[in-house]
Amino acid sequence: MKIKKKIKSEILLKPIIWEDNKLILIDQRKLPHKLEYYVCHNYKDVAFAIKEMVVRGAPAIGVAAAYGLALAEINEDDIEEAYKTLKNTRPTAINLFYALDRCMKAYKEGKSILEEAKRIHEEDIHVCKKIGEVGEKLIDDGDVILTHCNAGALATSMYGTALSVIRHAFWNGKKIIVIVDETRPRLQGALTAFELKYEGIPYKVITDNTAGFLMQKGEVDKIIVGADRILKNGTVYNKIGTYSLAVLAKYHDIPFYVAAPLSTFDLKSKEEDVIIEERDKKEVLYLKDILLFPEGSDCYNFAFDKTPAELITGIITEKGVVKPNEIMKLFK
Fold first, then answer.
1. Residues 117 and 161 placed together within one structural domain of the fold
2. Does residue 228 have an active-site annotation?
């Protein structure tokens, strides 16, 4: 039996920092070419950061929003107004509402919003680490793993969700290669590539429309993505393009996993209740300031899609791996 040497490693990227009553975020608009920080002094700065994608990823958005409400408390702003402003920044990722509601509950009970925000932050770090420890057992030595969007440290407080699984497999000595979807139109795949390069994890970038061909050629062993919301019926909302990958994976008999913390589960909403965010058409029609299509072209720019439960092999959480029809086991 081959004994694998465990690699000791430490996550170096810290996307969310609370220091001297300021929220400091890695400015993801500048990545992958520049590692710069965006400093939030008040809740309006945080709302801007969430809306304009300075900070991205469901768990990271939730933590940032919690600190945004804490800044409102510190600055003696109207808490209800701050809550409303932060809540309306982005409509699909459930972690935003989860974190804000927790902080508001603490506030109404006479507790410190800041202390609750810090708890949410620490919990997210612990949970994402656990997701990696649980999920890496699904990865075999030599696996080629395809991922979509960025479900890494940059999308959380640390470690990531899908990338936490990949990180822990790599740290435990498994020889893996990651296939990184570019993820049009915001190219979040560049953020994933930035993280993988930062830690020396082998990867290859592909255009989104290459994924099916690689599966057809037998060059993808597993697919792992993150999630922005998971319903009680197992429906997963994630970055646009996830559904297409799941259909292709089903056809080619490739395991399709979703990695997400319990805070991403929405046990109350039905599919018709979930708002799929539509973003500025310029993200599709322009490359920076260059118009790529004929003047006056219209387009769709849905930020997310929904993947039905029957296309999902398993959901990796901090409490274990479950099938989509077993979700309620996690909440007993």
1. no
2. yes
